[in-house]
Each structure stands twice: as C-alpha cells, then as structure tokens.
C-alpha cells in the first residue's frame, strides 16, 4: 500500500475491464474481476460494463472513468492471463506497480499460434461433426481446404480494412466461389454441404449463444448488443455466399 | 461407429476452434475432451429424441459441469472451455442459412430458421444455467479439498 492513489486504481481497473471485454469475456466476469481488485486494495469500486463501454467508479471520492470498448475477436489467452494476474494480486503475490506493468504487457501482447497452426485449426473446425453422416467423405475432405481458404481471406481483409463485417462477408464470398466452382467442375457432389461445413469458423453461433446467456443473466443490454452483432454477421455471410453463387453462375453458366 | 467418429471429430473441431480463438495451450486438450464427450451425448440424445431442444440441452449441461470442473483443475476462467466446446453445437449454420434465405427473398424460410436458431441457442444457454447451478453446489467442497492438500 502507499505507492498508488485512487486515480491509479480506477484507471488500472478500467484497463483491465477493457482488455477482458475486448477479448471475449462475459460482462459479469468483467464486473466481478474489477470489483475484486478494488476490494483487494481497500477501495470500494463499482464497475458497470456493457459491450460498448466500461464505467469504473470509486465510491470514496467519486472518481469516475469511462473506457470505450470495441469488441473484437476472441483472444482467450489474454482473458486467461488477466485472470491469473488478478488472482495473484488478490493473494498479495504481486504489488500494485507490478500488476500495472503486467496488465500493460498483456494489452499489447500479440503472442499467438503460428500461422500454419491457425490454418490447421480453421481447417479442423471446417469439418463439421454435424454433417458427418449427411455429406460424403470427399465433400468433407474438400471443405477442410475450402474452410482454410475462407478463413485466410477473412483474416487478410480484416487486417487491411476497418469496415466492420466486411471480413466475414469476403470469407463467405470466397467459400461460396470455391464450393460452386468445385461442384461445377464435377469434383464435389453438393456445394451446399461444403459451404455450411466450411463456414463453421466464421459463423456467429458462439456469439449468439453467449448473447442468450447474457440475457438470461439479466445483462440485457450486452445480450442485445451481442445478438444484433451476431445477426449482422449472419446477414453479411449470407449475402456474401449469395454474391459468390451469382458470380459463379455468371462466369461458368449452369 | 457413429459414436467413435463423432468422438474423434468432436475432439478435433473443439481443438481447432481453440486454436482459432487463441486459447492458452494448457487448456486445449481438456477442451477437446469436453467437446468430444458433449458431442457423443448429443448423438445419443438424438437417437431417443428427434427435436432440437433435448440433445442440445443435455450436451450443454455436460459441457457446463465438465467445464467448471476443469476450470478448477486447470485454473482458468470457465468461458475458455465453453467457447471451443460449443462450436460444433451452436446454430451458426442455421443462422447463415436463414440469412441466406432472407437475402434471396424467402421470408418464411428465413423466419423459420431464425426461430430455430433462437430455440437452439436458448436451450444451450439454459443448459449452462442448470449446469452452473449444479456446479455451485458440487464443487466448493472439491475446491477446499484441493486447497488443503496443497497447503499440507
């Protein structure tokens, strides 16, 4: 104690909340973690998190800070690291200054799996267990590679464009183009099965389920924001696939 | 045969999504096991019940209980186990299909798909709530036991 004042604590708590929220933690966990840290340093902190902002308020002197949040992709490694840090801090294994440094480090941390591991992962997700006995084995084998290409296209566009939803739409276009070309060439037997299977890494199913979980926990605002986000992503993927289909029809006929 | 294949591919797809969402490495294998077991439960429940609600509900309860257990054992937030295990169950393909119908102008099919997606999502979410209610009763003694054993 002693090497920090209230403002520091509020700022740090806001940073922690933002990192957690941006990388896919649920709102109740964000609020819980932040308030827990406040309790550890004996400063009563109230935190309110929605999907678009984190409000952190210290009760003692009415210091409030608002942090804007842009929810992005899942990066659960950061969530786990922050969780470990806050646990160590509340066990007094870390001092406040050390915690501050470590949180900054996590915020700008870019450690990730290597690109080929990511692609392999996307490919594995693209072989949907849901379709094991509905699609032919060869179609599933193809969808492994189609899914990888869709994932690469989405990631590439996501790195180069800030327009929301464009990356998943391009992913949909790529997958649809490949699937329909494969079917027109007579390699694949059913384009629709390949598309559904290969879209698994892109579709917002997990987001939809998380949004319903939030609504059940009575975090209604966050839940609705997540649900709208999921439906928008669904619309962009759907229209992307339709555009790809039309393009193939125009070029190859049939 | 169906169960073995379901187990293998459920495992692989959970691990794959774990890699895509950048899970910490120590959580990948437990997440894979949970995903595989949940998928087997889903298949077996599907044999006796042809709706979408019961299989998804049971699978979500299994994920919830095992996920909370591994969260204690591996010391990680429970969401880390939920996200990759869910990927083969969630109604992503149905949302996509319904939105595609929407784009093509088939409003009736679009609405049908959306309602179905909401139903599946809701049954998964309720499954998690049930699982969490059960885990909150079961696991605190276990946690205490682990804590004591470490201190002795």
Fraction of residues of chain A in helices? 55-70%
The helix/strand class of chain B is mainly alpha
The succession of helices and strands of chain A, N to C, reads: HHEEEHHHHHHHH
**SSE ordering of chain B:** HHHHHH
**CA(first)-CA(last) distance of chain B:** 47 Å
The total number of structural domains of chain B is 1
Give the biggest sheet of chain A: 3 strands, antiparallel
Evaluate the radius of gyration of chain B. Answer: 17 Å
* Beta strand % of chain B: under 5%
Q: Judging from the principal axes of the Cα atoms, what is the shape of chain B?
A: elongated
Number of helices of chain A: 10
Provide the fold topology.
The complex is a heterodimer of chains A (254) and B (152).
Chain A: H1 6-22, H2 27-40, E1 45-49, E2 53-58, E3 63-68, H3 76-90, H4 96-107, H5 115-126, H6 137-160, H7 166-184, H8 191-198, H9 205-216, H10 220-252
Antiparallel strand pairs in A: 1-2, 2-3
Helix pairs in contact in A: 1-2, 1-4, 2-3, 3-4, 5-6, 6-7, 6-8, 7-8, 7-10, 9-10
Chain B: H1 2-20, H2 25-48, H3 53-74, H4 79-86, H5 92-104, H6 107-151
Helix pairs in contact in B: 1-2, 1-4, 2-3, 2-4, 3-4, 3-6, 5-6
Describe the protein.
The complex is a heterodimer of chains A (254) and B (152). Chain A is mainly alpha-helical. Helix content of chain A is 65%, strand content 7%. Chain A is built from 10 helices and 3 strands, in the order H-H-E-E-E-H-H-H-H-H-H-H-H. Chain A has a 3-stranded antiparallel beta sheet, covered by helices on one side. The termini of chain A are far apart. With 152 residues, chain B is mostly helical. Chain B has one domain. Helix content of chain B is 86%, strand content 0%. Classes of the chains: A mainly alpha (254), B mainly alpha (152). At the A-B interface, helix 3, helix 5, helix 9 and helix 10 of A face helix 1, helix 4, helix 5 and helix 6 of B.
């Amino acid at each position: 104690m002693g090497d920090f004042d209230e403002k520091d604590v509020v700022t740090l708590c806001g940073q922690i909340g933002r990192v957690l929220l941006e990388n896919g933690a649920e709102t109740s966990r964000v609020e819980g973690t932040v308030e827990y840290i406040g309790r550890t340093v004996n400063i009563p902190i109230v935190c309110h998190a929605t999907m678009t902002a984190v409000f952190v308020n210290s009760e003692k002197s009415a210091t409030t800070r608002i942090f804007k949040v842009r929810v992005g992709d899942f990066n659960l490694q950061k969530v786990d690291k922050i969780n470990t840090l806050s646990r160590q801090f509340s066990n007094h294994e870390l001092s406040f200054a050390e915690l501050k440094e470590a949180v900054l480090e996590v915020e700008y941390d870019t450690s990730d799996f290597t690109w080929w591991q990511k692609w392999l992962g996307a490919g594995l997700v693209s072989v949907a267990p849901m379709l094991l006995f509905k699609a032919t084995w060869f179609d599933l084998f193809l969808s492994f590679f189609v899914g990888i290409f869709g994932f690469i296209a989405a990631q590439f566009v996501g790195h180069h464009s800030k327009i929301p939803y464009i990356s998943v739409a391009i992913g949909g276009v790529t997958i649809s183009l490949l699937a329909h070309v494969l079917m027109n060439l007579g390699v694949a037997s059913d384009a629709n099965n390949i598309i559904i299977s290969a879209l698994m890494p892109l579709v917002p199913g997990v987001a939809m389920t998380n949004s319903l979980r939030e609504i059940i926990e009575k975090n209604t605002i966050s839940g609705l924001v997540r649900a709208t986000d999921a439906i928008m992503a669904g619309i962009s993927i759907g229209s992307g696939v339709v555009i790809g289909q039309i393009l193939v029809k125009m070029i190859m006929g049939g | 045969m169906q169960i073995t294949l379901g187990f293998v591919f459920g495992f692989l797809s959970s691990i794959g999504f774990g890699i895509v969402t950048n899970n910490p490495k120590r959580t990948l294998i437990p997440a894979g096991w949970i995903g595989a077991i949940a998928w087997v439960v889903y298949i077996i429940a599907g044999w006796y019940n042809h709706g979408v609600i019961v299989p998804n509900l049971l699978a979500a309860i299994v994920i919830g209980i095992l996920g909370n257990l591994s969260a204690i054992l591996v010391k990680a937030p429970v969401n880390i186990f939920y996200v990759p295990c869910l990927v083969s169950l969630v109604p992503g393909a149905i949302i996509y299909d319904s939105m595609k119908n929407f784009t093509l102008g088939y409003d009736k099919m679009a609405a049908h798909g959306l309602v179905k997606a909401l139903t599946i999502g809701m049954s998964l979410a309720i499954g998690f709530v049930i699982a969490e209610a059960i885990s909150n009763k079961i696991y605190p003694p276990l946690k205490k036991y682990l804590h004591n054993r470490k201190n002795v």
